[in-house]
Structure formats: C-alpha cells, structure tokens
Design goal:
The chain is an alpha/beta fold and 568 residues long. The protein has 16 helices and 17 strands. The protein binds 1-deoxynojirimycin (NOJ). One of its GO terms (biological process) is oligosaccharide catabolic process.
Length: 568
C-alpha cells in the first residue's frame, strides 16, 4: 500500500481549532474524523426522558449540552433501532426506524439538529452481518420453502447425518453453542438449519445475494440523508463467507486468522469489495460520510479495512487489551501508527466500550485476571483495588488522548465508573449469560445506566426504575458530584479535551528517552509533551508548563501511575 501524504489537520486551518467552548465548535472540515474524540452512547443506558426505565433518544438530546461541555467531536450511537433486545439492540428488526420505546425518527432528527448546532457529529451503528429473527426478511424466509428467494437472503442449509439432525458444519456461535439452529415447520416437523454467528435471534445474512447489498446501500443513504456524519460497522470482518458445499471446518480462533484471507468466515478478501461499494455512497455526499470498522482480523490485515477506498478507519483493541505497562503501551502505539499509515488512515484508540469490563476495574485487578471468572465471583473478595484502577485509568486516558488519531470514549468513563460486577443473576440480559448456561455473566456490568445526580432513585438517569440496577456508590460519582470539582475525573476529561483541541496540530509523534523503563515520554508538534509514569516511584518532570495531570504533582515530581501533559 502506498505511504500516505501527511494528513492536513482540518480544512478550516489551525485557527479554526481555537476553543469555541462552551456552546459551539469550529467546523473541523471533511477530515474531522482523523483526530476526533468520539463518545459512545449506549442509548438504553444514557438518559431516560420518559421514566420507562430505558434511556432514549430525547434523553441523549437533553444531554447534548453536557457532551459539548465535555468537549467531544462526535457521538457514536449504539443501535437504537426496533429490536427485541436479544443482543442489546444488535438484533435489528428494521434498519431504518427508531425503536418506539426509544423515540421516533422525528426525535432522531431533533438529536442530529441539536448536536450539529453545537458542532458535534453523529455516527450510527450499522449491523450488516445479521438481522434479527423478527426482521421482515427473516419472517418471510420462515414462511417460504427451502431454496426460495426469501431463504436465499440468509444462510439456510439442510442438516447432515442420516436424518439431517446434525448441524451443517461445526461452526460455533460467539455467544456459545452451535452457530446453527434448526427450524420446525408448521406441523412441528424438523426442517432446515440457519446460520447465526451470534445468538439464534441474529440470523446471518447471505452477502452473496445482490439484494442484500442493495438493502444496505439504501440504509446507508437513508441515514446520510437524515444528516448523520458517519457509521460504525459492526462485525465488519464477517460479511463475506465461503459457503461452498461441503462447508469447511473452522479450527482457527480469531487470534490465529490466516494472512491470505482464506478463513471460511472471517476476514475474507471478498469482504473488501463490499466496502469499496459503500465508499461510493459515502463519497457521494458532501462532506463525505465517514466509517469505522469493527473488524477482527490478523492485526496485519486491519489496515485493509481502513483504506480510504473502503471504510477509512478501523478500530484496534490493542490498547484496550494491553496491561498497564510502559513497554506494552509503547509497542501498541508504534504498531498501530504504522498500520494506520500503511492504510492512509489515522489510528483509533479505545480503552472501554459496551462489550468489555470497564477499564477502571480492569486496571484494578491483578495482571492476568480472567475477567469472566472475576465477574462470576460477583467481584467479591479483595482482588479489585478500585483506587489503583481509577489512578491508572486516569493516567491511561491522558496517554491515549495525547496520541495522534481518534480516541473513542465510552459513556461513563469520564466519571471513572467501575464495572458493576455484582449484578444479580435475575437482572442479567446479555445472551452470553444464557448461551453459556450461566457460566459467563457477559457484558451487562458495563451497561448499567449512568448516574447524573447524587439524589434520586436512579441517580438522575430517569424518573422511573433503571433497566439494570445501579450501585449505591454511584451517588458519589454522579455528574453533579464531579461537576466543577477540581481533581474530579469529569474535570480531568474536560480539561484534557479542551487542551487537546488547543494543542493538536498534525499527526506526528516522537518518543523521548525518559531514562526509565517504566516511564514513557512522547512529544507532539508544537512542544506538547505527555509523560506517563507506569511505575510506582515518582518521576521528576522536565522543565515546562504543566497543563494537566492525572494526579497532583509533588515537588514537581509525577507520582507513580499517573500522566502529565506539559508544554515546553
Ligand atoms: C459487536 C457488538 O459490539 C456487540 O455488542 C454485538 O454483540 C456483536 N457485534 C454482534 O452484533
């Protein structure tokens, strides 16, 4: 792949970057996404405007001012489409509507308008690998005969074994159990099987079918026409499949995918033809719409998704998976920057999202802790050191926000929220809990509704109940408890985002030898330095003006497990 030209920061020029807060943001131009701060909203858990216990679209709109003050460039909305919530909304009944319990298309338009009015972009989640089993297409497929056009939009196969009672292949679902479910006909007789890489309520689409392509092109245009600025593409690596008969066995784990695109299910070469077609839609708008791939591939092939002729950017979860360790963090950054440069893109960075244990808790657990096992103990015992977790989380976010590329924040991390590890079994809704026969709790502990106020039954989330119970300790970390409080995690994020906008210029980075293996020192153009002390011994900062620090300096020394930005 050709080396990219150095990317201009924004078409409006550096002056347009001066802080226009609160209230309005400068227009960052068509390349806004290259170094954006994107805030992920999990709509059902953000803010509930009507007291039904579920966060909703008007709830998000009511908090646009909060997000503007926080200083984010864009909101990524996890799915808000009609859904039975078999997988938290990633089981979509209708891609071109809003779930009635979350609002209406008019509410969505109002959110876009409110966000755009303060210079915040909107990114929607596109889920193209599977629909829900309540989608009109799947209902039609169920009512149609084997071999029909309606069935050919999905992956239906006869079973194997003498009476077809064995699944068509040994493929496993990500949520546990076989990736095939057998139908029964109206008379109760066993019928064909259908493929679902995730829950049975999420039948996989057949991307060998041209109709499927057209349907998603229509969906992309539908949201672009309503003003959305970009898309996050769910399971972007799995759309193209080798469905030749007999279906091939799939021994590889996602971490061991072949480098030649030959796995039957993941990261196949043909998947890129799909995104090249999507790019034409993105580029037919002014400004072009942006996209980011959630793609699991061999790390070396991630860049393919991020090419400017395809989705333009790809998530990497390398930092999220790294231990809080100087060498690991630096290695990840070097690798990811090289990957992004190879693609002609900018890197993404993320520490938490709706699928993982919140990083303030991960960093408080002993290195190597099995997070599924830890959740199964309800987080009990003494192994979680919350103070250490938060200290490291604050250090890590300053490190991340100093990097060139786009930073993705997950709602509530700006409050320093911990994972809710002790949700009662009866409250759990993640299909992982069910599909693993209650041996893995899944992801609900990262999806607990946000606390906005110290008081109130749901800490200001809404006037009714919350769909997942919130811990009592959250009254102390609610937004109103941190707002304006020097040293709070919320104010740390606000300061960091404001200063980042002020200091960010181009996309380069240099490393400076800190003289210690457990300290990382990086510098961005214009003399923007970030020092992160991964160790426990204080570190004497070089001369300069400290702009923000994750912990109070002591006699000019950076305490252990903290970061500081300074200008020199
Ligand atoms: C990735 C999403 O982030 C996750 O929440 C979902 O369960 C799967 N894709 C399936 O859509």
């Amino acid at each position: 792949m050709p080396a990219p030209d150095p990317a201009p920061l924004d078409a409006a020029g550096p002056d347009a970057r001066s802080d226009a807060r609160p209230g309005s943001r400068p227009d960052l131009g068509a390349t806004w996404w290259r170094q954006a701060v994107v805030y992920q909203v999990y709509p059902r858990s953000f803010a509930d405007s009507d007291g039904d216990g579920l966060g909703d679209i008007p709830g998000v709109t009511s908090r646009v001012g909060y997000l503007a003050e926080l200083g984010v460039d864009a909101i990524w909305l996890s799915p808000f489409y009609p859904s039975a919530l078999a997988d938290g909304g990633y089981d979509v009944d209708d891609y071109r509507d809003v779930a009635p319990e979350l609002g209406t298309l008019t509410d969505f338009d109002a959110l876009v308008g409110a966000a755009h009015a303060v210079g915040i972009k909107i990114i929607v989640d596109i889920v193209p690998n599977h629909t829900s089993n309540r989608h009109a297409w799947f209902l039609e497929a169920l009512a149609s005969a084997p071999g029909s056009a309606a069935r050919n939009r999905y992956v239906f196969r006869d079973g194997t074994g003498v009476d077809g009672s064995l699944p068509p292949s040994d493929w496993q679902s990500h949520f546990g159990g076989p990736a095939w479910t057998r139908l029964t006909d109206a008379d109760g007789n066993p019928e064909q099987w259908y493929l679902h890489l995730f829950a049975p309520e999420q039948p996989d689409l057949n991307w060998d079918n041209r109709e499927v392509h057209e349907e998603f092109l229509t969906t992309l245009r539908f949201w672009a026409d309503r003003g959305v600025d970009g898309y996050r593409v769910d399971v972007a690596h799995a759309l193209a499949k080798d469905l030749s008969d007999p279906l091939r066995s799939k021994p590889e784990t996602p971490g061991e995918l072949p480098l030649d695109g030959s796995d039957p299910l993941f990261d196949r070469n043909e998947v890129h033809e799909i995104y090249a077609e999507w790019r034409q839609v993105f580029d037919s708008y002014d400004p072009p719409r942006t996209a980011v791939a959630e793609a699991f591939s061999a790390p070396e092939r991630r860049a393919l998704y991020a090419r400017p002729t395809e989705l333009g950017q790809a998530f990497n979860f390398d930092l999220l998976k790294a231990d809080f360790d100087a060498a690991e963090f630096r290695e990840v950054v070097e690798f990811c920057l090289a990957q992004a440069a190879e693609a002609g893109s900018s890197s993404t960075w993320v520490l938490s999202n709706h699928d993982v244990v919140r990083h303030a808790s991960r960093y408080g657990l002993p290195t190597g802790t099995d997070l599924d096992d830890w959740l199964m103990t309800d987080g009990l015992g003494t192994i979680l050191d919350e103070e250490q977790g938060l200290r490291r989380a604050r250090a890590a976010v300053l490190f991340m926000l100093a990097l060139p590329g786009s930073a993705y924040l997950y709602q509530g991390e700006e409050l320093g929220l911990q994972e809710v590890a002790d949700l009662p079994a009866g409250a759990l809704q993640d299909p992982i809990w069910l599909r693993t026969q209650h041996t893995k709790k899944g992801r609900d502990g990262a999806r607990v509704p946000l606390p906005w106020t110290e008081e109130g039954a749901t800490y200001g989330f809404g006037s009714g109940n919350a769909w997942l119970p919130q811990p009592a300790a959250w009254s102390r970390v609610a937004v109103d408890q941190q707002d304006g409080v020097g040293g709070s995690t919320l104010e740390l994020y606000r300061d960091a985002l404001r200063i980042r906008r002020e200091l960010q210029t181009d996309e380069t980075l240099d490393w400076i030898d800190a003289g210690r293996d457990d300290v990382v020192h990086l510098v961005r153009p214009g003399g923007w330095h970030c020092v992160t002390n991964f160790g426990t011994e204080p570190y004497a900062l070089p001369a300069g003006e400290v702009r923000v620090a994750s912990a109070e300096l002591v006699d000019g020394q950076l305490p252990g497990e903290s970061s500081a930005w300074f200008t020199a």
